[in-house]
Amino acid sequence: MRALIDFFRRKPAVPQLVGTGLHAAGDAPGARVLVCGASGAIGAAVATAFAAAGARVFLHAHRNGERVAALARELHRARPDLPPPHCASADLRDAAAAQALLREACVAMGGIDVVVTAIGGAKDAPLPLVDARDIAASIDDNLLPVINVCDAYRALPPGPRGGRIVNVASVTGLVGQPMRVAYGAAKGAVISYTKSVARELAASGITANCVAPQVIDGGLAKLMNARVRAVLLANTPIGRACTPQDVAHGVTYLASPAASFVTGTVLTISGGLVTW
Ligand SMILES: NC(=O)c1ccc[n+]([C@@H]2O[C@H](COP(=O)([O-])OP(=O)(O)OC[C@H]3O[C@@H](n4cnc5c(N)ncnc54)[C@H](OP(=O)(O)O)[C@@H]3O)[C@@H](O)[C@H]2O)c1
After folding, report:
1. How many other CB atoms are there within 10 angstroms of residue 176's CB atom?
2. 181-234 pLDDT, tens per residue?
3. What stretch of H or E contains 269?
4. Maximum CA pair distance of the chain?
5. Ligand 1 contacts CB of residue 91 (under 6 A)
């Protein structure tokens, strides 16, 4: 009984960004942000939004290192008052590579307040052509990097580690899409993984959330079946496609002190396509 009373009296840890003034897009002086997948359409927009807000960003790529190198130059030209962004390449399906990346980012920036994963791959195929190997490959491409990055972040000592994880999932992980059964399964797994991580890490001052964007123009959506895409857009009450910047605004909100009581949630950025 005593233990139970003590449990309820215990002061919960308050998740916050240690030593930063990150408030919202437009004001993030000093925040140290690792963007995994910054070579992609959404990751680049996320990195740009944080940098524009005054955050220090570390840009990760997998195969397209030259894209983050170019983005780093662009961001530095826009904000010469900030140290130039560091870049690194890693295949984040590999746990050791994820640990090495986070260590490198910690050394480069003195810590990581926010880690964002904007990583994934998709292949459209109708249900009869999808087998267990396709599902496993999609889990490898979409879930495994998220697990490896979250694990590596959790394992950092609390000093250099701030307290924000934001994973980019997809509305497909919530409502499914025809032709995207493997991708939907993997994105659904990213969402449920993030929810459990959030519950388990809340007491150590870390929040973990997802954004679930609608289809954008570009990025993985370039691979999407045109008919499926048209139906999706026709059913979007705000009659336009999502932009990478729409997604970036959601990410910067979830990384900000304004969201310090928000964890384990999915922020849908879907123009009303998903309303729950
Ligand atoms: N595009 C959309 O309409 C849409 C909608 C909803 C959600 N999303 C989600 O948003 C995220 C970003 O997608 P995007 O559209 O920006 O796609 P994208 O432009 O193709 O970017 C994908 C990113 O993932 C990285 N990546 C792929 N495999 C990796 C691996 N094994 N290890 C580490 N990094 C890896 C890529 O790195 P390299 O390019 O350097 O190889 C790239 O930075 C994904 O999670 C996607 O599911 C996209």
Report:
1. 14
2. 999 999 999 999 999 999 999 999 999 999 999 999 888 888 788 888 888 899
3. strand 266-269
4. 62
5. yes
d(CA 166, CA 144): 15
Q: Which of 31, 59, 32, 64 is nearest to 44 (CA)?
A: 59
**Residues in contact with 6: Cβ distance below 8 Å, sequence separation at least 6, in sequence order:** none
Which candidate, 37, 32, 31, 93, places its Cα nearest to that of 64? Answer: 37
In sign, the C-alpha dihedral spanning 174, 180, 182, 183 is: negative
Model pLDDT for residues 111-156, shown as the tens digit of each residue: 999 999 999 999 899 999 999 999 999 999 999 999 999 999 999 9
Alpha carbon of 20 to ligand 1 centroid (Å): 28
Backbone phi, psi, residue 244, to 5°: -55, -30
User: Does the annotation count 153 as an active-site position?
Assistant: no
Of the residues 153, 183, 193, 253, which is catalytic? 183
Please state, in angstroms and rounded to a whole number, the distance separating the CA atoms of residues 201 and 137. Answer: 28
pTM (predicted TM-score): 0.91
